């Protein structure tokens, strides 16, 4: 072996050995790998929502000559703006987020190698956007979630359990496959809480600016995330109060907070208002008022209060108890959170009490805000998508709390917790096996109310046994639409969809399956490694 070859071999061996010994003993690195691999395996290659598809078209209009909304989509979608052009009515947050991936995906789709595939669904551009964006958001969310749990003084093992609970036991997994705004909002909310709490602990202005900017970016995504911003401030006040801080000191901290945070919020608010004016020539209106005016003009029979015509009790109790949208069914860890809080509240640290009260107030605020909305349920979504992010935010911490107070809680709460965690994992895995509108289409013939989660498991069993049509789960209208038929007759993962669509080459399909099975094998190995590491490592405090 020549000297140059020997040196390269030694360098490669050293790099591999260093990474294995150093990085694969770090729970944080392993947690990020779990987040990335699980999200990779969960992808269908599609955006998972018509809303996200519209936002991606807006992204495309930022840097190409294509319109944000095509004329043929009106009046079902779009509003004419001040320039006479059709615009979408969403915020700019998610379109900006998808911009880099859209540019890369567009150029890749134009390569000769994909000429035969053309623009088949899932398109090359959608595949690039969904994979890269969802994986990035999941990894960053795992990172900031772990950081925040360590700030709340949970041990390394408890923090790891909390991140895994978020990834696999809440609706976060579903929205990691179906790319709505939810997980991006959750990421920014975690960042806002974590960095602003760091300011509370250290007094440094830099984390306060970062945390405030995270909340500000949320405002660009959806204006109702102003509720997240308020919940962050409530968390800081409650943390000071539970720690016994004197009222005068609380006032001084609040003054410092407002001097830094409010100007940051104002800057992002102005950007949002500029975007509204740029499209519609109005600085103070919101998209809700604009599309309400549009649809009232198209349909004069709509009530004057549209789109806030739903009786409050329908939307409020619907989000809590209906079999089609109940947050307790789609995020069962909320039940565990209630159990743990009832039996161990007095033992909680001050900062944990503050977080739980702030997160609970955030969840209730979202439920109340959307209770009167015309589609309070979130329409075509798994669960109530308007409140699912707040539900995840409150639910996931139940697992690290259960681990911390296992002995004090007793056997009943422990085994109830294990049952709820197991049920949560099964529900979230079931949520990504099929195309999300499947049960929504089925309810058109099955009627309401329908126990959606039970129907999903029935669909899984029927598909495995090839009994979907005999059991009445597939009707003729579904089979007439070729696009729909493909989606309800394949598992909702990219390799299976590519094989079912039948346009991609056999080699491409085989490569997709190899990569998919390899990601599952790697995920299994990393989870086993993480289990071994966290059994023995306490881990340093993370600031």
Number of domains: 2
* Residue share in helix: 55-70%
H/E topology pattern:
HHHEEHHHHHHHHHHHHHHHHHHHHHHH
Q: How widely separated are the two ends?
A: 48 Å
Major sheet strand order: 1-2
Strand elements, count: 2
Residue windows where pLDDT falls under 50 for at least 5 positions: 538-543
Strand percent estimate: under 5%
Number of helical stretches of at least 4 residues: 26
Multimer state: single chain
Mean of all residue-level pLDDT scores: 91
From the helix content, strand content and strand pairing, which structural class follows? Answer: mainly alpha
Return Rg in Å.
Answer: 24 Å
Overall shape: it is globular
Concise structural overview:
With 543 residues, the protein is mainly α. The chain folds into two domains: 50-431, no CATH class; 438-483, no CATH class.
Task: Write out key terms for the chains shown.
2 strands, two-stranded antiparallel ribbon, 543 residues, 26 helices, 69% helix
What order do the helices and strands come in, and which of them pair?
Elements: H1 3-22, H2 27-42, H3 50-63, E1 79-80, E2 86-87, H4 93-97, H5 99-109, H6 124-151, H7 156-169, H8 172-177, H9 182-202, H10 205-221, H11 226-242, H12 247-280, H13 287-298, H14 312-321, H15 327-330, H16 333-344, H17 350-370, H18 385-395, H19 398-404, H20 406-431, H21 438-446, H22 452-464, H23 476-480, H24 482-487, H25 494-501, H26 506-534
Antiparallel strand pairs: 1-2
């Amino acid at each position: 072996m020549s000297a140059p070859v020997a040196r390269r071999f030694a360098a490669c061996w050293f790099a591999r050995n260093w990474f294995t010994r150093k990085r694969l003993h770090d729970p944080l690195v392993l947690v990020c790998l779990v987040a990335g691999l699980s999200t990779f395996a969960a992808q269908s290659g599609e955006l998972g929502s018509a809303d996200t598809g519209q936002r991606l078209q807006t992204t495309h209009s930022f840097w190409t000559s294509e319109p944000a909304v095509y004329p043929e989509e009106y009046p079902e979608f779009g509003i004419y703006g001040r320039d006479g052009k059709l615009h979408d009515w969403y915020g700019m947050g998610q379109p900006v987020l998808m911009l880099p991936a859209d540019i890369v995906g567009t150029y890749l789709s134009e390569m000769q190698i994909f000429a035969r595939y053309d623009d088949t669904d899932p398109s090359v551009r959608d595949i690039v956007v969904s994979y890269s964006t969802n994986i990035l958001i999941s990894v960053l969310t795992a990172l900031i979630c772990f950081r925040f749990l360590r700030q709340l003084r949970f041990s390394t093992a408890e923090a790891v359990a909390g991140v895994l609970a978020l990834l696999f036991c809440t609706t976060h997994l579903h929205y990691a496959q179906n790319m709505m705004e939810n997980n991006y909002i959750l990421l920014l909310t975690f960042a806002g809480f974590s960095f602003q709490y760091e300011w509370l602990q250290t007094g440094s202005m830099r984390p306060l600016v970062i945390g405030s900017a995270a909340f500000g970016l949320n405002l660009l995504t959806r204006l109702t995330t102003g509720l997240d911003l308020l919940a962050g401030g409530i968390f800081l006040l409650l943390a000071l109060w539970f720690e016994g801080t004197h009222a005068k000191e609380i006032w001084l901290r609040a003054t410092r907070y407002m001097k830094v945070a409010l100007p940051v919020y104002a800057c992002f608010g102005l950007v949002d208002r500029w975007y509204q004016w740029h499209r519609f020539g109005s600085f103070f209106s919101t998209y809700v008022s604009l599309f309400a005016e549009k649809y009232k003009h198209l349909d004069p029979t709509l009530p004057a209060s549209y789109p806030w015509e739903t009786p409050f009790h329908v939307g409020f109790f619907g989000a809590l108890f209906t079999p089609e949208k109940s947050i307790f069914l789609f995020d069962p860890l909320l039940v565990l959170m209630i159990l743990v809080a009832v039996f161990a509240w007095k033992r909680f640290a001050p900062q944990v009490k503050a977080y739980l009260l702030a997160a609970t107030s955030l969840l209730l605020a979202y439920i109340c805000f959307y209770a009167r909305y015309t589609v309070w349920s979130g329409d075509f979504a798994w669960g109530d998508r308007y409140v699912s992010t707040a539900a995840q935010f409150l639910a996931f911490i139940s697992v690290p709390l259960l681990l911390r107070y296992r002995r004090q809680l007793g056997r009943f709460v422990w085994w109830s917790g294990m049952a709820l965690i197991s049920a949560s994992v099964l529900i979230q895995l079931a949520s990504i096996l099929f195309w999300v509108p499947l049960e929504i289409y089925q309810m058109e013939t099955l009627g309401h109310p329908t126990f959606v989660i039970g129907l999903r498991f029935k669909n899984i069993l029927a598909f495995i046994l090839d009994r979907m049509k005999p059991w009445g789960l597939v009707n003729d209208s579904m089979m007439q639409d070729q696009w729909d038929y493909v989606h309800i007759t394949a598992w909702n993962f990219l390799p299976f969809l590519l094989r079912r669509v039948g346009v991609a080459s056999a080699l491409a399909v085989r490569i997709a399956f190899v990569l998919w099975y390899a990601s599952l094998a790697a995920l299994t190995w990393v989870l086993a490694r993480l289990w071994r590491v966290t059994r023995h490592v306490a881990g340093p405090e993370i600031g």
